[in-house]
Every structure is written in C-alpha cells, then in structure tokens.
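#onboarding

Welcome to the new folks! Below is a worked example of what a typical request in this channel looks like: someone posts a single protein sequence, and someone else replies with the predicted structure as tokens. Don't worry about understanding the tokens yet, we'll cover that in week two.

Example request:
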Amino acid sequence: MPNTALLTSSLHYGIVARSYPLTGKILRGYLDATGTANGLGWGNPNIEFSPHVTAIALASEGQTAKVLWGYRNGEVAVTTANRAMDRNHASAAKHVRCKVDDCHEGAVRDVAWGVVPGMEGSSAFVTGAADGRVKLWDAKRVQSLWTSARGPDLVTDSCVKVAFDIVHGTVVCAKQSGAIVVWSGLGGALAGDVEIPQVTPRETLIPAFPALNPPSEASRTAADRELIDLRLIYSSGDRPSLLTVYKEDRYFYRV
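Example response:
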C-alpha cells in the first residue's frame, strides 16, 4: 500500500477505516466484519457496525488490504479489499468466513497474521480463543490446518494472546493463568500441496512467572496480571525469544 495510506480498526464498532493522514483525506465507507457494505457504504459507524467482533488484525499486500476478524461465537473471517486506497473508484471487498466445523468453541480472544520480514502479505494466520485452544489457518481458504490439543485441567485456561513466526513454523499462546505455550515444527502444516496436512509439533510449556515489581504489587497472582502484548522474535539462529508486556508493570520480560 502507499506509504502515506493508513488503515485503522475499531474493535468497538467492528470496522476498518481507510485514510491519508498527511492530507486529512478519509475514504468513504468502512470495511466491516459482517461483509455487507465492505467499502461501499456511507461511512456511518452507527450503521455499518458489527457488535460481535472480539479481535482484529490488519495486513496489506501491494494495493490490497487484508483484515482478519475474530468473533464472540468462535467464528473467524478474512476480508480482502483490492485497490483499497483508490480515491476515485470504490470497489466491494471479498469477505470469507470459516466453516462451522473449523470454529472455536469460545470467543476468539486474539488473532495474528504470519508475516515474513521484508515482505508484504501472508498466507497463514493463527487464532486463540476462550476455549483454550489455538488454531493455525490457511488465509486464502480460511481453513483450519492445525488445532492445539485440549488441556488436561477441568477448568479451561483461556488463550489471551497469540504470536506467529511463519518462517520457522512457530506458534505461541499466552494463557489466562500466566503460562505460555510454544509449538514449534508447524512448517509442514503450511505445505501448499497438502490438502489437510498432519503435523505433530513440539510443545513447550513455560510456567507463569512472578512480577519484578515491589512486594506490595508482586503479591498479585500470575492470573491477575493483564498481558498487553506478546512478541515472538528470532534474533539469531533457531532459538526464539519471547517479549511480554503487562499492564501496570514497568518492566519488559524476555523469556
């Protein structure tokens, strides 16, 4: 997309706006999570809204904008808008939802595109939900390629944040309890010539760790710490590093 273009999302309304902030130009119509107007509306968020959206992730490829949606009912969808930033000719975007059998069994808490450094676009993405499970998806077909196993506990440990490195085939999920799960070896699931790939990734569990704040704040349990962001980084070799940020915590944590 043009360097002067900007995509902005609203989780409250379930829409994505398109603008040129350096000139103050806002394109009319929103890309919406229902797949109805999809860029051809009048730009009224009180009309073109989707109240059941729980997660949004944005990406672009050339002149095409891509929006990944997660819903309260466990559904997942992808909106693809060709020539999304064309000021003169509005065109309807393509909206594809996942099949019912591929849905999560709880509200989608987080979604993430698999982005290759230095390249635009992505062929895959991951989602994490309140059912405690993580799914790896084919972006073009919006088809689930792999789903994490259910946990052994009777009480579901919800997935609150996900991260994805498509180059190394690594997926990370941060749980409500504070634990972090890493799955590696998922590259085989992304093979384009396999209809339904069968993979058995290596699973690594990182137990919840305490905060480094003063004792008065550190007395909180790990589950009470609200995770703001989770990043997966391969700085050198094949050993990943995780960076986590928590609300009301002055430290960054590298795992």
